[in-house]
Amino acid sequence: MRIHLRVWRQAGPQAAGSFQLYTAENISANMSFLEMLDVVNDQLITKGAEPIAFDSDCREGICGTCGFLVDGRPHGPDPCSTVCQLHMRRFKDGDTITLEPWRAKAFPIVRDLVVDRSAFDRIIQAGGYTSVNTGGAPDANAIPIAKPVAEAAFDSAQCIGCGACVAACKNASAALFTSAKITHLALLPQGQVERSTRVIDMVERMDAEGFGACSNEGECEAVCPKGISLNNIATMNHEFLRALLRNG
Ligand code: SF4
Ligand code: FES
């Protein structure tokens, strides 16, 4: 296939960015989207030009490192998929594809398609952990947890922190990400000790990082590669109110 690319190029956080046009030749339908970009970058490097910067690590849909807008949609057209799991057979010979970084104040652009998502790390640092010593793995597994509770906690724990939910939201809200972490720990016995302080600290950190309020429109759930449910946001709001009432 021959694929035309409109790629956002930006040399650094303060530099002016613009779309640049590239043509990728001899692209196999079996290539992943990132392998196609690897081919384009090889050609750019051969010509002495700067390669297109983009993030990736596992390329298996599990680490949350990759992510940019493909024709305006976070992670591209496939439902419940990361961009590293997108394949070129989804496109046709001669297609023009537009690539942009996540657009959100709290995710400043580092270069080209790479954004700084350390705001998510700071939300986790505010409370997305348990400081209770649960012992080694056998001890932790000895705590009885009902199967429906364990499965619900696991559903929330599947969030990989990619940031697509923020990129899809017109308010650039991090409510789905933050609520998934809060819900995961609020459901489990290990998360009970810090349950109230956790939700307040994480929500306050989320607001301080410049993420907007939940729009209630559900774009986040629609683009989430892990199918994280909007129910997590309802749980976060419930947990927040509960914590405020408990703290007086
Ligand atoms: S909630 Fe979904 S879209 Fe948002 S960071 Fe987690 S995995 Fe990514
Ligand atoms: S590179 Fe790990 S999820 Fe895409």
Features:
248 residues; alpha+beta; two-stranded antiparallel sheet; 9 helices; binds iron/sulfur cluster
Write structural notes for this entry.
By secondary structure, this protein is an alpha+beta fold. It is built from nine helices and seven strands, in the order ββαβββββαααααααα. A hairpin with an 8-residue loop joins strand 1 and strand 2. Helix 2 packs parallel to helix 6, helix 4 runs antiparallel to helix 6 and helix 7 crosses helix 9. The longest helix is centred in the C-terminal third of the chain and has 16 residues. The mean pLDDT is 95. FE2/S2 (inorganic) cluster (FES) binds next to loops.
Overall morphology: elongated
* Overall pLDDT metric: 95
Radius of gyration: 20 Å
* Count of DSSP H/I helices: 9
Which strand order spans the largest sheet, edge to edge or round the barrel?
2-1-5-3-4
Secondary structure elements and their pairing?
Elements: E1 3-9, E2 18-24, H1 33-46, E3 69-70, E4 73-74, E5 96-100, E6 109-111, E7 114-115, H2 118-127, H3 137-141, H4 147-157, H5 164-168, H6 175-187, H7 195-208, H8 219-223, H9 231-246
Parallel strand pairs: 1-5
Antiparallel strand pairs: 1-2, 3-4, 3-5, 6-7
Helix pairs in contact: 2-6, 2-7, 4-6, 6-7, 6-9, 7-9
Short description:
With 248 residues, the protein is an alpha+beta fold. It contains nine helices and seven strands. Strand 6 and strand 7 form a beta hairpin.
